[in-house]
Amino acid sequence: MQSLSLTQLPAWSTFTQAVQQATPDLEQLCLIDAAGLSVDFSGQRQSPALQQAAAELLEQRHFQEQRKLLLSGGIANPTEHRAAWHNLLRAPAATADVMHERERLNTFVRDADLARRWRHIVHIGIGGSDWGVRLSVGAFGYTKLWREVRFVANIDGHAIEAGLADLNPHDTLVVVASKSFTTAETLQNGQRALEWLQAAGVKNPFDQVVAITAHPERAAEWGVAPRHIFKLWDWVGGRFSLWSSVGLTTALSVSSDVVAGMHSGAAAMDHHFETAPIESNAPVQMALHGIANRSVLGIASLNIAPYDSRLIHLVPYIQQLEMESLGKSVDIAGNPVPVPTGPVVWGMPGTDAQHTFFQWLHQGSDGAAVDFIMCQQADHRWKNHHQSLLANCLAQREAMLRGKTVEQAYEECIKQGHTPKESEWLAKHRVHQGGRPNTLIVLPRLTPYHLGALLALYEHKVFVQAVIWGINPFDQWGVEYGKHLASDIIDEFNDQPCVKAHDVSTSHWINLLKKQL
Fold this sequence. Notes:
This protein is α/β, with parallel strands linked by helices and 517 residues long. The protein has 4 domains: 6-77 and 265-398 and 436-469, Glucose-6-phosphate isomerase like protein, domain 1 (Rossmann fold, 3-Layer(aba) Sandwich), CATH 3.40.50; 86-262, Rossmann fold, CATH 3.40.50.10490; 403-435, no CATH class; 477-514. It has 20 helices and 11 strands. Helix 13 links the parallel strand 8 (301-307) and strand 9 (344-347). It starts with 9 loop residues before the first helix and ends with a helix.
């Protein structure tokens, strides 16, 4: 357990001072190659003093020991007293039980493929049981799949209605993914899917239901046959569960080879994270720049800008990973963290983003740090499209980094034929502040290997930031509180006694809505 808060560490004041004195060096390329990815930090503040201060900060936070604890399956999640051993799930040689479950999943997929069974898949899960599968299926199944996949996450009845609409119930597999197998949204949607199968005359609906959970006994009690229950482990956080049997839907829709490739890329990034020196360790350097931007420079948000339309679900995936992990204001010792922690994470793919919010990124009063992500090679034959995509990515990044002075803007206006007086006025509207921090992550192409490496890069970055801030990135008590309150309100909707006093507004709406429910 960390005994000192961040600002009590001698290295923190040195780090803070070094960040404030450093600037991006536009003449110095700062590039790290990691597990097949190229991560360009040239758009972040750099200096020898900053690197030295960062190394001292990591040492005073016992980073080496914390990393070893994480990667070896030690108690990395102290508030729930368990490991966070998701890296084991993608290890080439894992423990016997993990390898056994991996083989069970692959056998299930092989048998289904040989029989050409399950024309439709309805994947029911939420949060970590949903976003990673959406991402992987979207990335590698953006063209026609022979199995149609529908995702149902939201408790809104419109979601399950749309998920089941026009499917053939007799050729549909329902995948119910819930670590606890108590998730209200997932079980309620799962029950509705069962009723849909029954109404269609399916003789034994549970023959067409698969459960993925850390509590197989609960799935069995619900009615799922043991052969259709795939295991998770308590030490796999929901937002890291893509690497587990939750990937079943990915394997059924875009192949087990895609899943294996993602595992391989993530394992390569695990090795890089474990062995690369601090100064050339991509996740560590990403984390340090993130700490500098958020806790020293006061930049409140991180924009994710993937210049590849197949990565449309990458933004919410990283959003959950970072905001659920780093949305904490109390350190492991229970004391308030004295600096701002996890940023708001948001974004959308370029070039759509350029026509939505990039104006704010360039000239807004706050601005944000930006992670630009692009693939060198496309998987289509439209060369001019890909050239335009890459050019836009590089140009938007350069504009944020270099900026435009009032003198440059004035000369630009004069060249466009404006009068000196008009130019003086217009120039003030065309100034770009510049120096806005950004990182460029380049994949050779979008393969399962490189996507796996990219996701692991962000996972380890989040872990390092948590170590520095002194927080636990593997729990989420804030979410749990709201779930408990919702359960109480549902009871009240069903005319059970109120167990807790509400504020006047909540009471008003409960009483009003009860009359129409």
